[in-house]
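ingest -> validate -> predict -> emit
validate: passed (alphabet ok, no gaps, 431 aa)
predict: started
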Amino acid sequence: MLFKDQVDFVSQHIKKNKLRVFMTVLAATMGCAFLIVLASIGFGIQDTMRKEILEDQAITEVEVYTNNGEALDISQIRTVEHVNAIVHRTSMDIMAVSQLGERSLEGNMLLTNFAEEEKSNLQLSEGRMPTKENEIVVGYQFAENLLTDAERKEMEQSTEEDAEPIGGYKESLIGKTISMSMQSYEMDEAFPEKWDFTIVGVTEKPARDWFVDTNMLVDESWKDKFQEVYEANTGNENPDLFYSSTKIYTSSLEHVKSVTEELKEMGYSVYSVSEQLEQLDVFFMAFKIGLIFVGTIAVLIASIGIFNTMTMAVTERTREIGVMKAIGASPKLIQRLFLMESAWIGIIGTVLAVIISYAVSFLANWILPMVVGAALGEDEFQDLSMTFSLIPWQLVVIASVISISVAMISGWRPARKATKIDVIQALRQEL
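emit:
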């Protein structure tokens, strides 16, 4: 029998029992769709968290520390392949008081090398990187926290958490000159020495909405001058006045892991985004496997319907099977015909399930943010780029293989039963 004739034979018998086959296909569709949609939740949450991590910090950043408290060997670190920049920022255990006209801000000052900052691709919302010693870069929220005494007093008296920000500098800070002085945390007044700095750049808005960046980035050449002023005004040498942190930036995300491993071999303690992503991927791998396992149970339940349908088909076609055997049909051919029918049910159910799953996923990502936002009373939640459901092609392949395999396994036993039907008894059966 030609393959075309086999297909025609199977389709004719399916048409004879449309309702029964339809219900069986529906069960297979629901089982497979449940598997895909359930597993897509795991993929969606993982995708959201990966995006959050990658947007929250520099993806090529590697933090490095010494285990014994000694200074880092920068020259040794520069020999590591794919190291693009080494940013060594130094903060002071002292308060920087900035003055712009009647406005002032008490914040933190960071000493850095702007050439390395530029290599690390430090993002600015406006302006440029400094080229002179008296040029600085300020944080994104620096301007809105430059307050007058009246505005600061009004802010302290305000008790509403959701109140609009009070005051702040509304114009661009680019090109503005601020007067900066230092004040020890143990003293009530700032040191008399003052320096004028020109703001030439403003950093990009922090990825986390709750983070407020009011830092001042100053060239590291000022370190000795600031220390002299501190010693002159306090009368003591403070070895712990400066706190340093070193971050290495690789040429691309693909090289973060290799650089991290090489630094570990040098004896340094390191932390990078790649390690966080690896831990996240391991957790979600187990989570997704669990969801797929639960979804497979639904497919197995649907296989009961396929098994019953194929068993009834064999029983109803006993005489027909006997005739086929009598005219020379081999047991393998008979078995193949019934396996083709069960496979057809599995394939059609899988195709419909994939279509339905994508539709459900689209609706979930569209409607759920609005529903959750309305339930929590937070309109901002609707604007978040959160993925509730994600269906990658790998999930479709896995679900299709499981669904079709289960369908064929369900039809295998009835198909084997059909090959063992006795020809004489089958022909004696009344029509």
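The longest strand covers residues 83-92.
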